[in-house]
Amino acid sequence: MATLLHGTTRHRAEKIVVEGPDPKSLGPEGFSTYLESGPFLFGPPADYARKKAALPECKNDRGPAILAFDVPDDIIALAIDEYFPLSQGLVQFDEGKGLEELRAAWSTLAKEIRPV
Amino acid sequence: MNTTSKFSEALRGAFERPARGVVGLVDDLLRLCRQQGLQLDWQADLCRVRSRAAGSDEVIDKPLRKSVFRAILARLATLCNEQRPNSVSPYGGHGTLSIDTDPATFFRVSFANTPDEQWCKIGPLAPSAVTGEAGTILECLEKGPKTYSGIRRFLYLAGWETRSSETSRILDELLAEGLVELESTNGELRLTSYGRLVTDNSAAA
Q: How many whole angstroms separate alpha carbon B23 and alpha carbon A36?
């Protein structure tokens, strides 16, 4: 089990907590998360949250937030491939790469929204 | 095997056999950019790479997940911000970077990484590292008829805009960032980058 972080806005984090990571709203870019332990070779999630909250389309999203949730290792393993080895710290859930399994387990996962 | 096909093979290898994930792929792309500028964009599940190998444009289309391409752009943004904090947003901008394995070589990067638009342009900044069919930048400039066209040639080989209307704007940005220095003494114009002479009036005569 590992804790993953997703930097976003508070409104979007609350929506994901209730609905899970929805492929319809995520689109082909999937669901980008980071190991809480790092490394953060693609930038820290808090930076993403701040920058996203600053976008005009997110002005009513009640500021930045980090969605933290615990995911079993076997689901994380589905997201690992030659482009996204776990050593990079980025766990990228795409369709066919663990996103469906993550959604199926979503209601059972411990999760919290952290302020930035 | 000519230089162009070697370059294409190396480029394809970087995408098809990433040894260290996206981080290693970006390092490989930057290593390849020491020789010529690259332009990458993503559309309809294809990553299109345009290079200026051996003085001519070359295009490679590579099937790639959108998430991989956006991770490449995110890594470039992180490297720019490591070079200069807050110089770019995760969603786009332009900045400079170097990599640990080759800290003496700097690259110029511009990119957009939004849900609707994903592209980047990467070019080398160190003139000595920029080689093409005609030789090094300095050799190109020595053959060049005018200082201004020499600067344009420098910008072209470095992978930046080539339209003349863009040249002064880009040059202003490079000057503002301290990446090049322009000096006018007794009517002679000298452009230097990291202490290396890029062009002057006497060479352009």
A: 18
pLDDT digits (tens, 9 = 90+) for A19-40: 999 887 777 779 999 999 999 9
Q: Quick check: bond before A39 cis, omega within 30?
A: yes
Per the prediction, chain A carries an average pLDDT of 94
The 10 Å CB-count burial string (b at 16+, else e) for B11-22 is beebbeebeebb
Question: How distant is the Cα of A18 from the closest Cα of chain B, in angstroms?
Answer: 23
What average pLDDT does the segment B53-76 reach? 85
pLDDT digits (tens, 9 = 90+) for B150-179: 666 666 666 555 555 566 666 666 666 666
B99 contacts in chain A (CB < 8 Å): none
Mean pLDDT of chain B: 73
**CA-wise closest residue to A102 among A111, A93, A110:** A93
Please identify which residue in the block is written with the tokens 């090094």.
Answer: B136
| Three-state DSSP state, B1 | coil
Identify from A42, A80, A90, A97 which residue to disrupt to test chain B contact, counting B C-beta atoms within 10 A and taking the largest count: A42
Which token pair is A1? 């089990």
Can you give the residue ranges of every domain in chain A? 2-115
Residue owning tokens 């190991």:
A35
What's this model's pTM, rounded to 2 decimal places? 0.76
Residue B98: other Cβ atoms inside 10 A: 17
Q: Is B85 helix (H, G, I), strand (E, B) or coil?
A: coil
Q: Is B89–A30 a contact, with Cβ atoms under 8 angstroms apart? A: no
Q: Is the pLDDT at B185 greater than 60, yes or no?
A: no
Which residue of chain A has the CA closest to B90?
A: A48
User: What pLDDT is stored for residue B135 in this prediction?
Assistant: 39
In angstroms, the separation between the Cα of residue A107 and the nearest Cα of chain B is 25
* DSSP label at residue A76: H
Cβ-Cβ contacts under 8 Å, A47 against chain B: 90
Name the residue among A67, A30, A29, A69 with its Cα closest to residue A48: A67
